[in-house]
Amino acid sequence: MIKRAERMTQVVSALQARTQFGQIMKRASTNKERFLVDRRGEPSVIIMSVKDYVDTIAPAPRWLERAWAKSKRTGADALTIGQINREIRAVRRELRDGKKKDQARPRTRTRR
After folding, report:
1. I need a labelling partner for 30 at 20 to 30 A (CA). Which of 22, 54, 66, 108 fits?
2. Is the same domain home to 43 and 81?
3. Is 48 helix (H, G, I), strand (E, B) or coil?
């Protein structure tokens, strides 16, 4: 049986957490529920979604929030991992080809 400890945190025994782990994970991630797992009557661990954790315990720094907002505005947040990898390869190729061109030119040194 699940007991209410706080508004959104529910206390479960270690045995219950072990036998119903999949269901607890699903409820934590979809319903933003938190679970306090107690072991022999003592609080042991908290189960919560990553989003809930980031929002409440470890909020993103301002620079990261700005980067997320910019990527959303530009549509970069909708890129697939394949598209991202192709973009990275293209930039690396351009950088590599640019270095080859620089190496082909003789370098002159200016004295002061």
Report:
1. 66
2. no
3. coil
